[in-house]
Design brief:
- The protein is mainly beta.
- It is about 10% helix and about 30% strand.
- The chain contains two helices and seven strands.
- Strand 3 and strand 4 form a beta hairpin.
- The longest helix is centred in the first third of the chain and has 12 residues.
Length: about 150
């Protein structure tokens, strides 16, 4: 995979720090796909992250919402040693971070049938929403006719 040097952009841009950090993080991201997950758009401003966390109980998983990120960590408690003939269900500790856009907030999380579902919603503040601006025009009493005759 190619790596890119962003230092020339750092010198000539202001306020794009988060964008460059996201690109660098994506480049450094390993191929660790554990646990598997889905990201869905439920509606225009609602999203859902589903993580397959088979073998974990709800008390062994933590979900932390930070500014522009949600972090999911799982760590199974030490259980009695077992002798597996085949061990196909991975139960290793994990930490997965999802970066969120501005104004996207975590609304809740639910654990059901081995899936952890995290509900997200984008709530744009009223001050940031587009609004219609009234156009003030000159009233007809203030308009003067410059030439007395009409164009032929």
């Amino acid at each position: 995979m190619r790596t890119y040097d962003f230092s020339p952009l750092w010198r000539s841009t202001i306020g794009f720090d988060r964008l460059f950090d996201l690109v660098e993080t994506a480049q450094r991201a390993g191929e660790d796909n554990y646990p598997p997950y889905n990201i869905e758009r439920v509606s225009e401003d609602r999203y859902q992250i589903s993580l397959a966390v088979a073998g974990f109980s709800p008390d062994e998983i933590s979900v932390t919402a930070e500014q522009n990120a949600v972090i999911v960590e799982g760590n199974q408690a030490d259980k009695a040693e077992r002798e597996y003939l085949y061990h196909g269900i991975s139960a290793r500790p994990f930490k997965r971070q999802f970066n969120l856009a501005d104004y996207v907030q975590v609304k809740g999380a639910a654990f059901e049938n081995g899936l952890l579902k995290i509900e997200l919603i984008r709530e744009i503040p009223e001050a940031m929403k587009p609004r219609r601006i009234a156009i003030n025009g000159a009233s007809s009493g203030n308009v003067r006719q410059l030439e007395g005759r009409a164009a032929a």
